[in-house]
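Memo to structure team: turn this sequence into structure tokens by end of day. - J.P.
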Amino acid sequence: MENPPTVRTASADPGPQTAAGKVLWHFTVSLDGFVAGPGHAMDWMTGLSFRPGLVEEYAGTTGAVLGGRDGWDAFPDAGGIYGGAWQGPVFVLTHHPEDVRPAPGVTFLNCDAAEAVRIALTAADGKNVEVLSPTIGRQLLERGLIDEIDLHIAPVLLGDGIRLFDNPGGVPVRLELLNGDDRTATLDVRCRPVTADAG
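Reply from structure team:
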């Protein structure tokens, strides 16, 4: 009798994030791939739970944040990152820095995404740069400048909004898992709709 094939699956927990000077594309994402609702709405995240210590882990390993103008215009509060648990340099990439209101700790950049991430890495001083923009993340991914993509998949379907990755007509971008024995394994998620009476 032949031996059955070995099935390897990825662990659900990739382990703690480390501050190793990485460029980290980091988001909580809906099951259908959105990082925000229409108009950058984030109310869909209300009531989500995360593993204990997650916010502190990322706040402690982040040296700088790089975001885009649309996100900044929707949430112009550098002190609100990780609910205020993180303080540090914030860089906002914009084509029109002349028409933004200055904010403490925020530098508005009008340059190429690669140059912006270089500036942010210098400011991060050996810690990670968190990219909090789908558009900038895609540009950096195309240039080979993203070291890791960290996603927290929320059990919600938005159906509309701002996608993590939009690349119409492009080729698939292959990724490898950083947790588990099989770096090509699929991630299994099992959900069911919440009924009104399940509140």
